[in-house]
Amino acid sequence: MIGVPMPNPRDSIIENLNQQLEAYFGAGRTVQEFAQGVSGVKDGTYGGGHSSKLRAERDRLAPGLKQLAESGSSINKAAAAMGIDHKRARLIARENGFKFAEYP
Q1: What is the pLDDT of residues 4-14, one digit of tens each?
Q2: pTM for the full model?
C-alpha cells in the first residue's frame, strides 16, 4: 500500500530463523560437530591438483632450507643458495616450523 512503511526484510529473516532454532532445539535436538573431511568439505583449501604439486615441491625443498637455517644463514642467503625467492623460503619455513637468523 502506498504510504505504509514496509517491514524490514532483515527483521523477518531473523524472526524466521529464531522460530526454526526454537523448533529444532525445542524438539530436544542438539548441535552436531563433524570432523573435517567427513562431509567432503575441505577448510582452508580448494583441493586443486596444482596446489598439491606446489606443496610437494615446497616439502622437497624444506630439509635443505632447514639445514641452512640451522647453520645460521639469513633468509636471503639461504634462498639464493637454494635458487628460490626469499618469500617462498619464508613460506617454507613457516609451514615447517623453523626460523632464520635475523642478522647472520
Answers
A1: 888 888 999 99
A2: 0.52
